[in-house]
């Protein structure tokens, strides 16, 4: 009887255990299925264009939280790539850069060269948008080097094109032109977007060097190959400005009028205002009796309504010039407004232009104050431009690329070490010893080579700096003194000629 009761009790307990176990397994299975479904739903929302960017970013973060295996789940890369896109649209560029770097590290561990090259190209784009041009240049350079190994000509050309554009903006015109020409060799002839951008970059560099004939040639090629109407209109406007610099006013006016008649600017108020302003200003330059005040003031009012700060700066400059001889008091008012606006925009070049107008229009006492400020700001701007270019040149030889290469080398060495651990201890010790000697020798040779290069660059830099300082301190200062004498004294012509002869002899001595 006791045995029967015990058997029955055991059967009941065992049955309960089986039921509980089955229920637990079903719950786990259900839980895993729910997690997988929720990740898919979150990723679907992340890609849903009908949702706002913040909501989509929230869904991407929720999907990441649900993924348990953060190292092997391939969906991680998809989510990170979308987060970069979403951060970019939200103008959170630092976050886009940070996520991009994380994605690069993942692809480095996977040794996926194509993905790494693409990631660096994308990183360059967000650096450029965030006004970190030097970092963008390095990222483009890293991307280009990988694409060279992969043999992808199109991507090599696109990276070179971006590098040329960056160099042009930083004042490295020779480097910019070299990379631009190299890019044209790699790019497919059908890639008109990049080809047009390269022509435009070369034209901008030529214009900044005041080589206007050359700029006209490349602007025309940029316009001919441009496939986007808005870009074509901008390039045409720049071409018209170059013709104005050459005082070929009829050609300049014809281009501006064609842009207005074409209607391509009707949906872009700022761009249309820029063309209307330049058209009126050019007409006045062609004929100072031309009454364009209503046109200039109409553009000024439009720019105020649109809060176009850079446009306002240009309007004040043109109005100051227009009223300079007609009504100096009004011209002075606009020159002061331009100076205030240029300071607000933190534009040193526009401040210098505004001060030039103020020096001519203000009373002699205030004119002298502006003149001294002008000299100081001009010197500061020259130093800043020189330092910026020097910093950029230094970055081109920086250790960032070496650090990335070293990181890849460490990953490769780690894999080799895992394989070597399976071999005999004697082979490991022998291989390690040989490797150490070879690496030490290579490291020593590399160090000596780099040190020699650095010494050569330092010597070149010292020589260029000494010559530049001599030109600035001696020639420029003498020219400033002559300008002062012309403006504020009445020295005889013979005295001025003697001063100019001294400058000529000084320049000849420096040249020798």
TrEMBL record:
The keyword Transmembrane helix applies. Residues 1-20 form the signal peptide. It comes from the Bacteria. InterPro entries: TPR-like_helical_dom_sf. Residues 397-424 form a coiled coil. Keywords: Coiled coil, Membrane, Signal, Transmembrane, Transmembrane helix. The chain crosses the membrane at residues 428-447. This is Tetratricopeptide repeat protein.
């Amino acid at each position: 009887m006791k045995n029967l009761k015990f058997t029955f009790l055991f059967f009941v307990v065992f049955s309960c255990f089986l039921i509980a176990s089955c229920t637990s397994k079903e719950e786990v299975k259900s839980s895993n299925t729910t997690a997988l479904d929720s990740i898919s739903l979150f990723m679907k929302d992340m890609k849903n264009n009908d949702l706002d960017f913040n909501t989509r970013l929230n869904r991407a973060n929720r999907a990441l939280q649900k993924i348990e295996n953060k190292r092997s789940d391939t969906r991680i890369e998809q989510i990170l790539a979308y987060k970069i896109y979403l951060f970019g649209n939200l103008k959170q560029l630092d976050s886009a850069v940070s996520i991009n770097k994380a994605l690069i590290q993942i692809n480095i561990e996977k040794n996926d060269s194509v993905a790494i090259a693409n990631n660096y190209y994308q990183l360059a784009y967000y650096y450029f948008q965030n006004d970190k041009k030097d970092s963008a240049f390095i990222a483009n350079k890293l991307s280009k080097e990988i694409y060279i190994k992969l043999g992808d000509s199109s991507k090599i050309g696109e990276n070179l094109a971006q590098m040329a554009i960056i160099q042009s903006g930083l004042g490295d015109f020779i480097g910019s032109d070299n990379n631009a020409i190299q890019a044209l060799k790699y790019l497919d002839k059908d890639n008109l977007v990049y080809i047009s951008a390269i022509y435009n970059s070369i034209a901008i560099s030529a214009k900044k060097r005041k080589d206007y004939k050359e700029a006209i040639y490349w602007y025309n090629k940029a316009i001919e190959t441009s496939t986007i109407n808005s870009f074509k209109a901008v390039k045409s406007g720049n071409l018209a400005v170059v013709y104005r610099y050459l005082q070929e006013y009829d050609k300049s006016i014809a281009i501006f009028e064609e842009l207005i008649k074409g209607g391509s600017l009707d949906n872009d108020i700022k761009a249309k205002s820029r063309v209307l302003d330049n058209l009126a200003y050019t007409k006045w330059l062609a004929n100072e009796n031309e009454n364009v005040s209503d046109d200039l003031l109409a553009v000024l009012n439009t720019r105020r309504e649109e809060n176009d700060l850079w446009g306002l700066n240009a309007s004040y400059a043109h109005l100051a010039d227009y009223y300079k001889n007609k009504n100096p008091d009004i011209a002075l008012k606009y020159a002061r407004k331009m100076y205030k606006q240029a300071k607000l925009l933190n534009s040193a070049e526009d401040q210098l232009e505004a001060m030039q107008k103020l020096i001519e229009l203000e009373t002699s006492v205030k004119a002298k104050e502006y003149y001294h400020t002008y000299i100081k700001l001009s010197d500061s701007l020259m130093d800043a431009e020189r330092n910026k270019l020097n910093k950029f040149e230094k970055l081109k030889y920086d250790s960032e690329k070496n650090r990335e290469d070293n990181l890849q080398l460490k990953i490769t060495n780690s894999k080799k070490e895992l394989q070597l651990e399976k071999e005999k201890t004697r082979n490991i010790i022998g291989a390690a010893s040989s490797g150490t000697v070879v690496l030490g020798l290579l490291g020593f040779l590399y160090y000596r080579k780099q040190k020699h290069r650095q010494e050569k660059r330092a010597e070149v830099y010292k020589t260029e700096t000494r010559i530049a300082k001599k030109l600035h301190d001696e020639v420029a200062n003498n020219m400033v003194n002559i300008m002062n004498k012309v403006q504020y004294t009445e020295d005889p012509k013979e005295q001025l000629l003697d001063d100019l002869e001294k400058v000529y002899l000084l320049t000849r001595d420096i040249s020798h």
